[in-house]
Specification:
The protein is mostly helical and 497 residues long. 88% of the residues lie in helices and 0% in strands.
Amino acid sequence: MKNKLKEIYIRKRLFVNAIFSGIQVCCTAGIYLLIYTLLLHKVGAEKLGVWSIILATSSIANVATMGLTASLVKYLAVLDSKKDSVEANDLVQTSFLIVSLLNGGVVIIIYFLAQFFLPKAIVRSELDLAFNLLPFSLITLWLNGLSGVFLSTLDGFHHSSLRSFISIISIIFFFFLSYFLIDKYQLFGIAIAQIAQAILSVFLGIIATKYIFKSFQFSIKFSKSVFRKTLNYNLSFQIIGVCSILIEPVLKLFLSRFGGLAYVGYFEMANRLAQQFKVLITSANQVMVPYVSKTTSSMGAKDYTYPILLRIVFSISLLFLLFIIVFSPVISIIWLKLRVPEFEFSLLMMGLGVFFSLIVAPAYFSSIGIGNLKGILGNHISLLFLSNILCYFLGKYFHGDGVIIGYSVATIISTSITFIYYHITFKPPFFEVFSRNLIIAFSLLLLILLAIWLRMSYQKLSFLFYMIAASLWLIALLIRLYLNNKALILSWINRNH
């Protein structure tokens, strides 16, 4: 009886965490939509492109500690199940010390390296602005690394809802501060607001950690035994972190070179929109990581939630892709006040990449929870090399569009590695996962790709494209509703005959 009540409590906690995570993503998406609209009208697409490149450049600082915060979630979940508060306390303190030192060192290195590679990506007239913004962005990244330790601690103790609440408060604070500062300070107003947001996140993270982890003591301490225990997992995640962090700056450097700063600005907006939807779905998967870590540590490395999550994610992702294809011109008109081909094309291609990434998300987070990162390593390493090669060669011949296509193709190929490896290693029931409704969905996806080709190749057939895409979107929705409610529909038909 006691175990049953405990299981019910865990399920309720997971549900609450997932709900708050979804609210956080929606709130963040709405705030960034307003921020980018504000930036576009106040400073223009080119300066937005400069800001995008600076953000991507400074984000490399995350390379130093990405593995550490990821392992923090996994091992805190295990220690929590063992009620080992002493080692948990040592783990948090050690992580904080390492993050503060490593991030600080990497920030200094990036600042000096940027003097060499920023002139290759940004036109001379905007270089002074870029170099002046860089220190603000690097300070923000260092502070975000510190807050990440405490927010990951909340995840490890199954309190992702608290993490989401802190993120919501800080993003709202960021928006209002940006709104009041942008007229006077332009991009520097946004930079100041980001630093203030990061400081608030650190402060709230410490308070929340102390609230849920009563024995936590904030002090500078390093534990060799704890560090060694998490080292292997850290190293694997560190390689993943290096690959994933380097991809965006290189992509934007290629896009700036072959497509121009304005294209980078429009790509940033389109990518942000597509990625927010991705985060909305993956955040619900991510809250399962501590639960999977906890259960597989005692029951063997098998995640029983995987088939259910994959079916749900696939259906939602397909509808998202169809929505993006059909309504990308409408989104452009509403957000940018006119149709911008660079924005629409970026949104289409990023939507396609996000679709395939989302299909792999259940396998991705299940692998993290189990602790087997080989498939994820293959994914990120191949994405780094493939995206560089394809973006360069396609960009050289097809300019900005070629860079976007190269990145999307690289994403599709690389994400399949995680998916295939997971199915070979853990052997989830294939036909249970890929039931008839998913096979129908895949056939519809092929028709969608045909519709995209018609739109890109034959402008005169654009009306036909929209008719095809809208019809497919409706068909997919109807099929999904029918399959979900098949028994109910058949019983109603039989009753009426």
